[in-house]
Automatic annotation (TrEMBL), chains A, B:
Listed name of the protein: Putative K(+)-stimulated pyrophosphate-energized sodium pump
Organism of origin: Thiocystis violascens (strain ATCC 17096 / DSM 198 / 6111)
Primary location class: membrane
One CC-aspect GO term: plasma membrane
Catalytic reactions of this protein: Na(+)(in) + diphosphate + H2O = Na(+)(out) + 2 phosphate + H(+)
Glycosyltransferase as UniProt keyword: no
Function: Sodium pump that utilizes the energy of pyrophosphate hydrolysis as the driving force for Na(+) movement across the membrane.
Amino acid sequence: MNEIVFWIAPIAAIAALVYARGFYKEMIRQDQGTALMQEIGGHVSRGAMAYLWQQYKIMLVVFAALAVVFAVLAYQFHVQSTWLPVTFLCGGFFSALAGYFGMKTATQASTRTAAAARTSLPDALRIAFRSGAVMGLVVVGLGLGNIVFWFILANLLIPAGDTGETHRMVLITTTTLTFGMGASLQAMFARVGGGIFTKAADVGADLVGKVESGIPEDDPRNPAVIADNVGDNVGDVAGMGADLFESYVGSILAASALGAAAFMHDPALQMKAVVAPIMIAGLGILLSILGVYLVKTEEGANQKQLLDALGRGINSSAAMIVVVSLAFLFLLGMPNVWGIWGAVIAGLVSGVIIGRSTEYYTSPSYSPTRQIASQAEGGAATLVIAGIGVGMLSTAIPVLTVGAGTLLAFLFASGFDPSQMNQGLYGVGIAAVGMLSTLGITLASDAYGPIADNAGGNAEMSGLGPDVRARTDALDALGNTTAATGKGFAIGSAALTALALLASYVEVVRMELIKIGTTVLTLGHGTTVPTDTATLTDFMTYYSVNLLNPTVLVGVLIGAMVAFAFSGMTVQAVGRAALLMVEEVRRQFREDAGILKGTSQPDYERCVAISTLGAQREMVVPALIAVIAPVVTGLLLGVAGVIGLLVGGLSSGFVLAVFLSNSGGAWDNAKKHIEAGHHGGKNSRAHRAAVIGDTVGDPFKDTSGPSLNILIKLMSIVAIIMAGVTVTYSLL
Amino acid sequence: MNEIVFWIAPIAAIAALVYARGFYKEMIRQDQGTALMQEIGGHVSRGAMAYLWQQYKIMLVVFAALAVVFAVLAYQFHVQSTWLPVTFLCGGFFSALAGYFGMKTATQASTRTAAAARTSLPDALRIAFRSGAVMGLVVVGLGLGNIVFWFILANLLIPAGDTGETHRMVLITTTTLTFGMGASLQAMFARVGGGIFTKAADVGADLVGKVESGIPEDDPRNPAVIADNVGDNVGDVAGMGADLFESYVGSILAASALGAAAFMHDPALQMKAVVAPIMIAGLGILLSILGVYLVKTEEGANQKQLLDALGRGINSSAAMIVVVSLAFLFLLGMPNVWGIWGAVIAGLVSGVIIGRSTEYYTSPSYSPTRQIASQAEGGAATLVIAGIGVGMLSTAIPVLTVGAGTLLAFLFASGFDPSQMNQGLYGVGIAAVGMLSTLGITLASDAYGPIADNAGGNAEMSGLGPDVRARTDALDALGNTTAATGKGFAIGSAALTALALLASYVEVVRMELIKIGTTVLTLGHGTTVPTDTATLTDFMTYYSVNLLNPTVLVGVLIGAMVAFAFSGMTVQAVGRAALLMVEEVRRQFREDAGILKGTSQPDYERCVAISTLGAQREMVVPALIAVIAPVVTGLLLGVAGVIGLLVGGLSSGFVLAVFLSNSGGAWDNAKKHIEAGHHGGKNSRAHRAAVIGDTVGDPFKDTSGPSLNILIKLMSIVAIIMAGVTVTYSLL
């Protein structure tokens, strides 16, 4: 194996952080515009930071409490990895740090983007996109950097013992998996809290401002307008970043753990299999940085040209990773290079197809969204029905894509020999890594969206001219498209990551069984196999993880139910928090008539505080459900029930998330389609119906849908770290 | 074994049909009221029959085509039971016959109920309820009668061969299972077609009549009013009847097949295990007839007293079956009597809890529906969001109940020995039979609902006095409660039946493997077992039906997706059909101004024809999807993929159905709560929002939700009858 392969990941991680810093410095140097623009930007920036600190405070309490629980389980009851209390806190800390940097950048960047838009579209795009890239690169840099750090540390500290080198490597990889728990829990708070914040503000601002008082969107007279802009940052920047930080870290760690297990017969091969996903991730970072420089446009570019500009960056990175990863897999000396490479491509292509499918179902350029818009002529009811129908039908392509991608990755990596289950599942892990390899640049295009959106808001509130707003509108529309595809990508990667984590769970169970002295598995018909060489199939037989075992079936049913109940909770949370916001905005209008006349300033801070409070109050219960469900299921139904739960949650959660996100996205764009002059245009009967559909879709697409990504990953990670407790104490 | 036990089922089946005839004759003798009442009743009755014949014509084509396919598969390719072409047509015919009788009775009964309501509440209740009992008893009578007939015929015609008596019994039970296919497919057409018909008419009538023209519900000036009343019959009587006919037949057949497999070591025990579910069903019929006579009330009874009157009949039947079934299980000489009895009770109690939970989440007497109503003050958007939140949360209790019921039935019947999987799964089948044992009377209370609803419509359209309408309103309100609990019961029984069918699938696969000469299963680690004595667990190992096999996982994902895509299709179908109705009603109002003045009669037939056409056009594709999905999955992914598909479809479909039904029911009652004077009452802002919510909920609760019951059962039955094709031709 070539020495250089080892160095790619650390170099790439450092490069990501260096370039992120560079892009940040470049952005900070730009003109901030007029005093009014800076004042508005300051409101948003302070509001976002205030929210973030508040969220971090609550998280600190939850994390501290859980760390104590983990410490007791680890040091008192010896049913927990002794690393967990530390890795857990680190995972949470670095995920939060990435969110902090990303959001700080985004809030600074939107004022400067608006300022640049006064004179130049290309400059505005460059500022907004490279600021988005700060988020993308910080996420992948901190993620991969941490993985490398923990691997090296585990390699140094975990002794060889008398179970041999291959066994030690399995222990190292399953130990580093514990880092995912903190990242996952922080992602849950960021997604759910951010999602509730942003939609409470959005719904509240719209219902009183647009519907009741008839003032336009982003009007500075609306007290909730700053909270709405803050929400874009805490939901779509910090929330999305934490979500993908977790997918990124989880997929790499899971793939490495599966690699260690798949090649236990040969220490040299095992090492390569563990390194491969980390290497691919490193290559992806370097190519993402390259891709960022390819995103540029010209003055007066239309929507298609702008989309092409982004596409150039993203697609070039993806195309290059296809070529480069093959070369480096050869350099690494992997066995079955073509199969592993096939798995990388299966993941990459799946991500592209899901993104395209999302675009088709939610863009006003295609028939599904246009049909929803035409149903607005029958009123709000038929529009809502149509949107739900489209959302449900839109689940077909993503599910079939992930299904085909998973099967192909499995078949490629197993050399088309289904009995090689370990190798095949390693391929599924590699596919997840492949899909996320160019996350540096795909996440940049996601984080770009809210920056452009806020730049538009700033331009509107600062009263900049129509030509400036035309530029920010163009950038904003581009952001809406990337937001939709970004959501599809986040869901798809969460599903693949959860699949990979599922297989890792069984590897962790193996370690736990060995720890408690179960050295032999009895498989029925008098067959026994040693625990440390048993195949994954043997574990399935040992625990009866088959689909006629009622324990498994009940687990699957509960998993499906948890996905729905969790969504119900988050949807209701938005409703409750939005109602508080509605009351506050009505109160301000009532008590100070000068606000609507524009003579006195509304109390923006109060609205930010209300959204913050609502989000904080509502985010804890859904988050805890994701933590508690696998623990309780494990204690009652054992390993078989837990696997059932994870599969039920994964399948229903994935499909439900696609449905919710696409329904919401399609309603949003059906409204925009009508506002563009179709079916009577603005303020028509159809438009009023479309506003209702858009509002219904808000919590669908920005709270419940994205939160489900985290639910399915967090339940898997909790199952993994609680494997010791399940194996030792389960009832059935 | 006592001789009498054998005679219970045929006697009960005949008794059911005799009493059904008696109740029908009794109803026909009643006064039909004024000429106007008879005319209106005639419109509804003719419309319903016209729809039914149209549906049967299309079904005839589809059934004939499929029968040919089955005949070719059976006689040409020898990969299909030679019985199927005949049993398939019979299953469809008798299911349709039950629907025909039930609907003929219901349409005749509503005029007479309205006529009786002119003088007496008790008389009106008696007529309506006993007419509902005609449906209930015809369904169970024809269902059980057919089962007995096919068992006897199979017993006579299937030779002993050289594989022994116990093997022959497995063959007999798996052969009779094919009867379920026709019943299931006819149920699909009845539920989907009826569901689209009724909601297209309802939504169309409401949008133009109530919302646009401001005329009250059931106003004779509304051209769609007759179609709306017809819809109640074709959807809630014929559709619900076909749904439960299938659950009833499917659960009994599945339990018998599982019994034959579970006791293959002992022919005497095996016979008892096959007979037990049939016997319990027979006892349930006799007790249901008894229960019907307990339903009576007094003049001036309030809602609670009316509910108690119904409850007396249903609960007495349920309580008696608990006692009587224990006695007869002893008489039958079943082994593990207490365990089997425990399974019966687990099923019965689960049904009751699900019904109660449905009532809690959808009745305006409890907080969930009231909270939805209070959200109407924020407008349609917050109301819709709240209803979706409540519906999603309401999935928890039914899922946990079915989960607990399944596990307990399994543990009881297996004597708390999880390795006795065959016995345990037989217990799950028995639980499904237990839940459905008193179907004769529970279905009576379902079919009662639309009769009372139509009686109210007739009273309104005939201009009867307010005291008459007070009586029909009381009966109608009672019907709304029974409709909600009936829906919960239909979903719960579908889930349990599908679980039992899942295990039967593997038994059918065993028969198919033996047929193609696979006499030995290789299980890995050098273990082999003979196919005809292999346990269900062995089959799971042989086919790798475990949750790490990507084939299974992809199957689960596809199953979950099919449930959503199928719902999306049916929801959109209602939207499209409703739009045609809206246009027709608008056209009639526009072209004849006399209609709204009340001087000329609208063209009712035209609206019925439009709903009929819409339903016919839209019902075929969703129905075919349910047929095609298991076949294609089987050909591509094999047995493991099919089982994954069934479990994915079952889990997501069950949860999704509960969500859709309960959201829809809760919106409906939130509207009624507001109409009762809360939050501003009728014609307030909140009421307008609630009407939108109710309209969104219409296809949820009456089309997509109930159709999912059939989807999960039909996919299982198709998998069973296509097992030969899957085993012989699958790719993976």
